[in-house]
Specification:
Helices cover about 30% and strands about 30% of the residues. By secondary structure, the protein is α/β, with parallel strands linked by helices.
C-alpha cells in the first residue's frame, strides 16, 4: 500500500510551490491534486485566503472561490480555509463565510492572567446553531474540545 502524506503548497519551502498572486496556477495545482486523488475523499487545507484578499479585489477572490469550491465538491473533497482576524472588512468576511458550508471561529480570551482558547461554531451545514463557546486544547493526540461553562 502506498503511503499518502500531506503535500504542502507554499511559496517557499514546501513540496509544491505556488505564487499567491497567480490565482490560475493555484487553482490548477489544487485541481490536479483532486484529480490524482479522485479515488478517495481528501481534505484541502489552506491558509492563503487572507493573503489572496490582500493582493486582489474581494469580488475576484469570491468568484475564484465559487469556481474552486464547485470543483472541490465535484470530487467529494473538503476545503478548509482560514482568515486572519482584523484584516478584512465585515462585508468581505460575510461574503466569504456565505460561500462555505461551515464557519468555525477560534479565538483567545484573556481572563485575568490566563489566556483561554475558545472555539465557536458559527454555522455548519446539517448542524443546528450552537450559540456558545467551547474550550479547546492542542495535545499530542490532536485537538481536544470540551464544553466551556461560565
Amino acid at each position: 500500500m502506498q503511503q499518502r502524506v500531506p503535500l504542502w503548497f507554499t511559496s517557499d519551502g514546501g513540496q509544491l510551490r505556488f505564487d499567491v498572486s497567480d490565482l490560475a496556477g493555484l487553482s490548477f495545482n489544487i485541481k490536479e491534486r483532486l484529480k490524482q486523488n479522485a479515488d478517495r475523499r481528501i481534505r484541502v487545507v489552506t491558509d492563503v485566503l487572507s493573503p489572496l484578499l490582500m493582493l486582489n479585489q474581494p469580488d475576484t477572490i469570491y468568484k475564484f472561490l465559487v469556481q474552486l469550491l464547485d470543483d472541490v465538491k465535484r470530487y467529494d473533497a473538503v476545503l478548509l480555509a482560514t482568515l486572519e482576524e482584523g484584516m478584512h472588512k465585515p462585508e468581505v468576511l460575510a461574503a466569504m463565510q456565505q460561500l462555505f458550508d461551515g464557519v468555525v471561529e477560534m479565538r483567545l480570551y484573556e481572563e485575568g492572567l490566563k489566556v483561554l482558547p475558545l472555539l465557536r461554531i458559527r454555522k455548519m451545514r446539517g448542524v443546528p446553531p450552537h450559540p456558545g463557546y467551547f474550550s479547546f486544547a492542542l495535545t499530542k493526540g490532536g485537538m481536544e474540545v470540551s464544553a466551556y461553562a461560565r
